[in-house]
Design goal:
single chain, alpha/beta, Rossmann fold, UDP-N-acetylmuramoyl-L-alanine:D-glutamate ligase, 2 domains, seven-stranded parallel beta sheet, elongated, lyase
Length: about 450
């Protein structure tokens, strides 16, 4: 059982393909189910501290895992009962059922236990839960002191993270073999509790991964302010947003940060103020140029965005600037571009879609040729080549004005340090989340920007 940083994220189809690959290498479904069940049982046994466990088994392979869990716990002397929704309906689940030699209770009639294990559906559900199942899960979950889901809480869509009916939240989810999008996408992620990964012997390599602590370059004896990375931030109508962004870039590790345009008193003395003119925009020392925070959306600002696009710099495009460009324009421009839209900005730029957030981010990156940071209560980062990174749940206090400006500055700092756009975006998102964790509660964006120093120092 390990933490999820860096883990592969597989859709249901990809997970089944990974399992099929294991079968092609001489493994079999029964052996894999046994490994999964025994790994879950070991985790449940450690966490339950000898308390009675009630395992809920569904008719498919998730239920088969449940029977193996129950049999393994019983063999170890743990008090355990099984309640089932119905008879197993897959060959491997039928075989797993034969290993449980004790009574099986009906789900709707089962008595509660201190520890509840949900092995009803996992990734194998695509329609809303029946009301009787919802009622049973709620009743038994509310009576338990610890609730654990096998692979996924019953009642969420594995690929989109959507609720299928009214699923009950759990305290811990044991992901089998790989993370699934629902472990990271809302609203499902909020139902999963703590997520931990169990190895079941499949090759879980994937183009999608969970972000983790990044590897960032450290200054050495030959370092100076420019080779550590120069970030320039374009100031727009709201100076405070651009100054927050610039401050964040400094605290995230940039060696030199310039604010292009007039600055208000109170900005850090280390922030260089320069006129916003063609000479400043053409400065070849700029390693990352940020345009958009507090920019405004009038014709003058549209012309300013076009001037930024005409430069040869790597770009971070945020905020209002996302309303002033098109995917076609970005693809034609090319080069290193990172977009940081929230949901409203994303729809303004790429339109609406019924696809999952993961699918939409990938489609947007492909359409624009840019790396897309689709931010929000869940954050998906997609590169044009299909590589994707997903962020685990962050501090809910990030829902404060200016936090997006801070994120843009953190990403720009990482981009200026020489990371490729996907790595820079993922590193900036990680630093942003770590800074928020260190701030705790009721912080403002200014606090968040300053806390990037401690978040950056945590990597050394």
């Amino acid at each position: 059982m390990r933490k999820i940083a860096g883990a592969a994220v597989l859709t249901a189809v990809e997970m089944r393909a990974a399992e099929a690959g294991a079968f092609d290498r001489g493994d079999d479904a029964v052996a894999m189910m046994q490994r999964a069940g025994h790994a879950c049982a070991a985790a449940v046994g450690r966490l339950s501290a000898g308390a009675e466990v009630l395992v809920l088994c569904g008719p498919g392979n998730n239920g088969g895992d449940g029977y193996v869990i129950a049999a393994s716990l019983a063999a170890a002397g743990q008090p355990v009962r099984v309640a089932a929704l119905g008879a197993p309906n897959t060959d491997t689940a039928v075989q797993a059922r034969t290993g449980w030699h004790r009574p099986v209770e009906a789900l709707g009639e089962a008595f509660p236990a201190p520890v509840l294990v949900d092995a009803l559906f996992g990734i194998g559900i695509s329609c809303p839960l029946d009301d009787t199942v919802v009622a049973a899960l709620s009743r038994l979950g509310e009576a338990a002191r610890l609730t654990i889901a096998v692979d996924l809480p019953s009642g969420v869509d594995s690929d989109s993270g959507a609720r299928l009916g009214c699923p009950a939240p759990v305290d811990l989810t044991l992901a089998l073999g790989a993370l699934k999008p629902a472990h990271l996408l809302q609203p499902a992620a909020a139902l999963c509790g703590t997520v931990r990964l169990l190895d079941i012997g499949v090759d879980a390599s994937a183009t999608a991964q969970v972000i983790g602590p990044p590897t960032l370059p450290e200054p050495g004896p030959q370092s100076h302010k420019f080779n550590r990375g120069m970030v320039a931030v374009v100031r727009g109508r709201m100076a405070g947003a651009a100054e927050l962004c610039a401050t964040a870039a400094m605290h995230a590790g940039a060696g030199y940060v310039a604010l292009l345009g007039a600055s208000m008193p109170g900005a850090p003395h280390a922030l260089v103020r320069r006129r916003l003119d063609d000479e400043a925009l053409a400065d070849r020392r700029i390693a990352a140029l940020v345009v958009g925070p507090g920019l405004g959306r009038d014709d003058d600002m549209r012309a300013l965005v076009e001037r930024a696009l005409a430069s040869e710099h790597a770009l971070v495009i945020d905020g209002d600037a996302l309303h002033l460009v098109t995917p076609e324009q970005l693809r034609t421009r090319g080069g290193q571009i990172i977009l940081t839209p929230h949901a409203g900005e994303f729809e303004a730029l790429f339109g609406r879609s019924d696809g999952s957030k993961l699918d939409r981010a990938r489609a947007a990156a492909n359409a624009s040729g840019a790396t897309v940071v689709f931010k929000g209560p869940d954050t998906v980062i997609a590169a044009p080549d299909g590589r994707t990174r997903l962020a685990p749940a962050a501090n809910n206090w990030l829902s404060t004005a200016g936090s997006g400006d801070v994120l843009a500055g953190a990403i720009a700092s990482c981009l200026a340090a020489g990371l490729d756009p996907l790595a820079a975006a993922a590193a900036g998102v990680w630093l942003h989340g770590e800074a928020a964790r260190r701030c705790g509660a009721a912080f403002i964006a200014d606090d968040l920007a300053r806390a990037l120093t401690q978040a950056r120092a945590a990597l050394t």
